[in-house]
Amino acid sequence: MSTPVIATDALTKRFPAVTALDQLTVEVGPGVVGLVGANGAGKSTLIKILLGLAPATSGSGRVLGLDVATQGSAIRERVGYMPEHDCLPPDVSATEFVVHMARMSGLPASAARERTADVLRHVGLYEERYRPIGGYSTGMRQRVKLAQALVHDPQLVLLDEPTNGLDPAGRDEMLDLIRRVYREFGISVLVTTHLLGELERTCDHLVVIDGGRLLRSSATARFTEATQLLAVEVTEPDDGSSEPEVAVRERLVAAGLTVGTDGGHVLLVELAGEQTYDLIRDIVAELGLGLVRLEQRRHHVAELFAREAVDDH
Ligand SMILES: Nc1ncnc2c1ncn2[C@@H]1O[C@H](COP(=O)(O)OP(=O)(O)OP(=O)(O)O)[C@@H](O)[C@H]1O
């Protein structure tokens, strides 16, 4: 494997009331990497430590081979950062703001103007770039934040929740843009989200954390490959009672099967031999329900949490 872009070893961050990162050991190579976790999972804390902006309590980390504890400024020269929260001044234009950020990172005036024009074009801001940011839509503001992260031509960008507040179309556009940052410029990307499943199409590799701990780190394809999992969906019963899948689930678990859900009404049943199909059909029939769907399916990242919860019991 090529040199890891990011590598941490037992990285831990304790605040007085909470352990935000707990012995996190993870290594990711070049490409587009998704950092997935619920709110409070520790994503922003990890990003701040990787940028050398906050010290770890224990453990170590390297970004582009540089030590986060002692080489923070060298890291920030080579890494772009798009913060989660809006940090944009309303009275200046995108061009003025991004030129300013380019100058701050050390580019001479003429190079700063050229790079600014390039990155604003790349993120899809054209005539609007001369108008004050205060009048921009959320999508446009997110693009300005992305542009300032790219303007000093970094080797890696850390994007904290770049799709936050966007509608589905805006989200898709942002994800396409992120993909192109790597494909067209060769800039590696670490992108965070609390929306499970959102990054399946965008990322080569996914790191999933929960409560500061590593749940899983692997190629996206490994998350979504076909598994021994059956999706089961049943009809509403005649008596009109809701959530018939709850009764089905109880019966399946009682029969010794491992059952999760997709977060909605679909049950996900571990296949334990061919008899699993018959068992499901029998139980559904005994409960007086009909089968809408019974099929082997692919994993989605979203299931990871549902399945973990089941595995804990
Ligand atoms: N400066 C701080 N002081 C005390 N606790 C903190 C601080 N920063 C973060 N935390 C706590 O650490 C945990 C992880 O927070 P973090 O912001 O890293 O999570 P996150 O995954 O980025 O979530 P979000 O998307 O909501 O920001 C949370 O419980 C949070 O309350």
From TrEMBL:
What residues form the membrane-spanning segments?
Answer: none
Q: What keywords does the record list, in alphabetical order?
A: ATP-binding, Nucleotide-binding, Transport
Query: What CDD domains does this protein map onto?
Result: ABC_DR_subfamily_A
Can you name one GO molecular function term for this protein? ATP hydrolysis activity
SMART domains from the UniProt entry: AAA (SM00382)
A Pfam family recorded for this sequence: ABC_tran
* Record InterPro entries: AAA+_ATPase, ABC_transporter-like_ATP-bd, P-loop_NTPase
Q: Where is each ABC transporter domain found?
A: 6-236
The family note in this entry says: Belongs to the ABC transporter superfamily.
State the name under which the record lists this protein.
Answer: ABC transporter ATP-binding protein
Organism of this sequence? Kitasatospora acidiphila
